[in-house]
Amino acid sequence: MNEINIEGRKIGPHHPPFIIAEMSGNHNQSLERAFHIIEEAAKAGAHALKIQTYTADTMTLNMNTKDFKIEDKNSLWSGRTLYTLYQQAYTPWEWHKPIFDKCRELGMIPLSTPFDESSVDFLEDLGVPIYKIASFENTDIPLIKKVAATGKPIIISTGMATVAEIDESIRAAKDAGCKEVILLKCTSTYPASPENTNIATIPHMKNLFNCQVGLSDHTMGTGVAVASVALGATVIEKHFTLSRADGGVDSAFSLEPSELRDLVVETERAWQAVGQITYGPTDEEKASLKFRRSIYVNKDIKAGEPFTKENIKIVRPGYGLEPKFYDVMIGRTAKKHISAGTPLRWDSI
């Protein structure tokens, strides 16, 4: 499985997880706040910052009929029309270049999710190095072909998608010129619950489609993301805000700065801990072997005196014979005088 190089940052199983902070609409229509979010994401150690490129008109129709209203009472956006929601959440296109410039200034990779052909053309003019396809667009084959024709890597979220739909999306991308695809396991509920996340799918998806797989995570906290790294996730995407208390379309399921820092640190630790299949002491453990248990003389023993349960004992440290020889030693006789505190060895018999 080939690693992917994005502006000098390598993504793959032999590298720490690639952490994407998703700003989405958490800028709350303030460019100054957007810059502050970028600064905090960089301080937290995120490798990339993602926005979304659309307008309300490229996303939906300005209609107030049932089809275009969110009527799910459990939704964060219940009662809203799609059009007004996207009006609130969109990132003005004139902000994109300053946002991207700020990201690069602070050492992060800027990327975006396009939602129609015009947004792809716009992002190409800005030199975006990698694209993201959202879960709700993973069956929009014309959009995927348009993005793939740029020849740049594509990250595809797989929320709601069947195996057949994922396969169709990947084939469309590759046929249109994309050579590098990363899939993200995703549950398209906001927020998502851990029990509905099913990250056991990650290694299955990796083997089935022979590509890197990560996680687009809408659960609260960092536990699910950390666990996904142990299952082979190479990319983690989480929504990010300055403070959930500030409100905003995505704030309720977004990480705050201290949580993003924890995510960066703990996912890297999880990646380091996976390691490789190994048995026996590691090089670092070898110094600890001396603290194993072994057989010691716990009372002075004269030459010719037998070893008994009263004068030899299994204790730490491990300089004497291994405990498995304890029963063998009982009844044998001492070859020489042995003082208490001496490790028992074969030359003592």
Question: What order do the helices and strands come in, and which of them pair?
Answer:
Blueprint: E1 4-6, E2 9-11, E3 18-22, H1 31-44, E4 48-53, H2 56-59, H3 82-89, H4 93-105, E5 109-114, H5 117-125, E6 131-133, H6 141-148, E7 154-157, H7 163-175, E8 181-186, H8 201-209, E9 212-217, H9 223-230, E10 235-239, H10 257-274, E11 294-297, E12 312-315, H11 326-329
Parallel strand pairs: 3-4, 3-10, 4-5, 6-7, 7-8, 8-9, 9-10
Antiparallel strand pairs: 1-2, 11-12
Helix pairs in contact: 1-4, 1-10, 6-7, 9-10
3D architecture notes:
- One of its GO terms (molecular function) is N-acylneuraminate-9-phosphate synthase activity.
- Its EC number is 2.5.1.97.
- This is Pseudaminic acid synthase.
- One of its GO terms (biological process) is carbohydrate biosynthetic process.
- The structure is a single chain.
- The protein is of the alpha/beta class.
- It has eleven helices and twelve strands.
- The chain has two domains: 229 residues, Aldolase class I (TIM Barrel, Alpha-Beta Barrel), CATH 3.20.20.70; 63 residues, Type Iii Antifreeze Protein Isoform Hplc 12.
- The strands form three sheets. Strands 5-4-3-10-9-8-7-6 form an eight-stranded parallel beta sheet. A two-stranded antiparallel sheet has the order 1-2.
- Helix 6 links the parallel strand 6 and strand 7.
- Helix 1 packs parallel to helix 4, helix 6 packs parallel to helix 7 and helix 9 runs parallel beside helix 10.
- The protein starts with a strand and ends in a 20-residue tail after the last helix.
